[in-house]
Known about the structure:
By secondary structure, the protein is α/β, with parallel strands linked by helices. The protein has a domain at 3-137 and 400-497: nicotinate phosphoribosyltransferase. It is built from 20 helices and 19 strands.
Amino acid sequence: MNTLHLSDGYKVDHRNQYPEGTELxxxxxxxxxSRVEGVEKIVFxxxxxxxxxxxxxxxxxxxxxxxxxxxxxxxxRRIGNYLGPDAIKYExxxxxxxxxxxxxxxxxxxxxxxxxxxxxxxxxxxTLPEFFWVTNFLETILxxxxxxxxxxxxxxxxxxxxxxxxxxxxxGDLDFVNLQGHDFSFRGMAGLEAAMMSGxxxxxxxxxxxxxxxxxxxxxxYHANSDKETVGLSVPATEHSVMCMGxxxxxxxxxxxxxxxxxxxxxVSIVSDTWDYWKVITEYVPTxxxxxxxxxxxxxxxPDSGDPVKIICGDSNAIPGTPEFKGSVECLWETFGGTIxxxxxxxLDEHIGLIYGDSITxxxxxxxxxxxxxxxxxxxxxxxxxxxxxxxxxxxxTYGFAMKATYGEVNGEGRAxxxxxxxxxxxxxxxxxxxxxxxxxxxxxxMRDEVTxxxxxxxxxxxxxxxxxxxxxxxxGEIRTLIDVQMKHETLKEVALV
Length: 498
């Protein structure tokens, strides 16, 4: 596809609508409003992918590297059929092709930075006056791509924050938390690219994933190397077709074969609610106790339906003494026992575990951890499978992402521009003029707008891309380090507030 087609239709002739003499358009990308309770900072992620994939790969292959006559004819045909013949002129497109690169500069925060709401993550401007129109022409594809990885990275950060808190509270292994959030979202995402971007964003905070392409994504675009570092991990696991094929009457034999013959060592996860989950927990698993304890590894039981809080922690409305009343963790403790953490909480024997991967949300994750703590169990007894309800049931408006122009130059005169609709609640009010982001130790403190060009050169924004070249790159390892630093900083702030 001709890369110039990757735009909203209304942008096609904005070049002709700007004031005569326009020479510069300076815009920024900002999360304007949080619609998630308690979340006021957003993780910045995805720009490096966007630059490599679209500003370089797609524009080079599908525009600049193709014959000029061919791409111009294709663009004229598309726009002529779309807006009508001779609706616009095409000299600006021909000039861009002749130039051979995108004349824009992007200055950004480091990816992985926690960015307060209403604070720009990056700015973009044209570098040649005759191509002022390119800046905001790129808005559509830029917005389409970047809001999702930022949103998913923020969600993963919130899961990690909850799990870190309860692991510390109950004496669980903080290193285990890296595996405690496991990405199950691939099949429910809106296409392969969404699955890869979101899956990669998940891996900024965790290492557990079933989204294999997310690992490839991070190796290709963020210099990850699974030979030298842990990018993403999983374990052998069954699905319902496997259990069904073994038949209901022979379900215990399927369990026995899996743990003794197919996977005699290591971790294996077995879906356990194909028929009667509580029968598995109270009859089959106790019968197989010695087989499980003899293994060098862990058998992970996976319930997959019902209310996850009740299935894991117990249902206070059930008949006292029943498995439903006790919940899975307590039932497994009665069979296998375990150890007591330094904080005084029960931790299941290392040979047995639980993973729940259906209908998990941030609120349910916190409720499960909270109820386990109240029952005297460490939160690290359970792994959470985080699916597409979490990672796909969001939109660009979840954090109000938008790209807006705040400064321009017309006939050499600078203009600090802004929008502030009277009919709006303040969400759409933009910054004004040139922008500078202040911070310390990698943490953003505040934004300054209407600064001078000299002031704009400083602060936390640095040139990432200019005139077709990627100037500064970041690795997965560097992003994870920054995430960890900010996680500790946020935790210390919350403790101080308490």
